[in-house]
Amino acid sequence: MLENIQRTTAYIKSRIGDFEPEVGIILGTGLGGLVREIEVEKQLLYANIPGFPISTLEFHSGKLIFGQLAGKRVVAMQGRLHYYEGYDMQQITFPVRVMKMLGIQTLLVSNASGALNPSFQKGDLMIIEDHINLQPSNPLVGTNYDELGPRFPDMSEPYRLNLISKALDIASEHNITCHKGVYVAVSGPNLETRAEYKYLRIIGGDAVGMSTAPEVIVANHMGLPVFAISVLTDEGFPETLKPVSVEEILEVARQAEPNMTLILKELIAQL
């Protein structure tokens, strides 16, 4: 794996020259619009990068975007990878390791998720302050490379508290409804049953989704500070549960995206 990371990193550096990103961004389902705010200097298709996994979802573009955003040099993943696409955890988190090798000092993550907390509503934002990982494997299983991080990384603060505080202040200043809560990561791709939603709430979840935890584990393994935010695109309340389609989820994400983009942009300016 280490050789693959080094080979992929070397190829990307050969294409972007002396550009060294400070901030890495992973854009979730329906949340690629932040790219419009970036002064793009270079774009690379995942398919053209040696060793880079390719997003299989039609609503994930599959590009690495390099450019300037809020006065910082950024690299944005327009299209993330999921376990349910058939990738293993090492493949899903491979881009995070490559972004770290390219020079990023902070990782920002977004996702679309379902609300579990009955005081939340679809269309709201939730800053992730902790997570419960129920995915079936862990990206750190297998050989540990000391060059990447320790065998047993600490996870007492997987999401940096100072970044959470700054983002909440930004949301308050702009009158954006933004909660903080616990994200539960499941494998997907099906949405949850009524009983599963109830269980996830009982164990402490405020929102549920199919991503994020693997990338955050690897970022912590490599010593990268992380900030993550969810757009709550549907409601998993057992008492009032209704069928929901992907089209509805994408539409809610589209409507909420400007608020998320504003928070991320202003947070990046403060890094």
Automatic annotation (TrEMBL):
Keywords: Glycosyltransferase, Phosphoprotein, Transferase. Pathway: Purine metabolism; purine nucleoside salvage. It holds the Pfam family PNP_UDP_1. It comes from Mucilaginibacter robiniae. The purine nucleoside phosphorylases catalyze the phosphorolytic breakdown of the N-glycosidic bond in the beta-(deoxy)ribonucleoside molecules, with the formation of the corresponding free purine bases and pentose-1-phosphate. One of its GO terms (biological process) is nucleoside metabolic process. One of its GO terms (molecular function) is purine-nucleoside phosphorylase activity. GO terms for cellular component: cytoplasm. InterPro entries: Nucleoside_phosphorylase_d, Nucleoside_phosphorylase_sf, Pur_Nuc_Pase_Ino/Guo-sp, Purine_phosphorylase. This is Purine nucleoside phosphorylase. Its EC number is 2.4.2.1. Residues 23-269 form the Nucleoside phosphorylase domain. Belongs to the PNP/MTAP phosphorylase family.
